[in-house]
Design a protein that fits this description.
With 133 residues, the chain is of the alpha+beta class. It has one domain: Pleckstrin-homology domain (PH domain)/Phosphotyrosine-binding domain (PTB) (PH-domain like, Roll). It contains four helices and seven strands. A seven-stranded antiparallel sheet has the order 4-3-2-1-7-6-5. Strand 6 and strand 7 form a beta hairpin. Helix 2 crosses helix 3 (116-125). The longest helix is centred in the last third of the chain and has 13 residues, at 93-105. The model is unreliable at 124-133 (pLDDT under 50).
């Protein structure tokens, strides 16, 4: 599990978050506490319910840039590309490496979920909301 700063895709506000690699994919949640100095001060500092990014919706990662936080820390810019868009997380480089290591241990599940066979298998386990409605 790593902690970082999640940038909201629309408002560009930055909030503390926690990420964990599980058997089913990535689990992310916003952590309680004061928002970062460059965040929207009107936002409420509550912990969110975890957001699951399942393996089949995960396209890839990018960690090619760095960012200096308002308190002077240099953080890695981790972009998580999903079928629904890109999530941007700022985290220490060592934590990003730890996350990649955990993803590497689950790479077989990721490949299976993205393959045509995996889509058939995972489609039987869970129906999409639009298929149920």
């Amino acid at each position: 599990m790593i902690e970082g700063l999640l940038m909201h895709p629309l408002s560009r506000s930055v909030y503390r978050c926690r990420m964990q690699v599980t058997r089913d994919g990535l689990l992310m949640s916003r952590v309680s506490g004061e928002p970062e100095p460059d965040a929207d001060m009107d936002a409420t500092p509550v912990e969110s319910k975890p957001i699951a990014i399942v393996w089949r919706s995960l396209r890839g990662f990018s960690a090619d840039e760095s960012h200096v936080s308002p308190d002077g820390r240099r953080l890695q810019v981790l972009e998580i590309d999903t079928d629904d868009g890109v999530l941007t997380v700022f985290a220490p480089a060592a934590d990003v490496a730890e996350l990649f290591s955990a993803v590497g241990r689950r790479a077989g599940l990721w490949r299976l979920a993205r393959s045509p066979l995996g889509l058939v298998i995972s489609g039987r386990r869970k129906k999409l909301a639009r298929e149920v409605a």
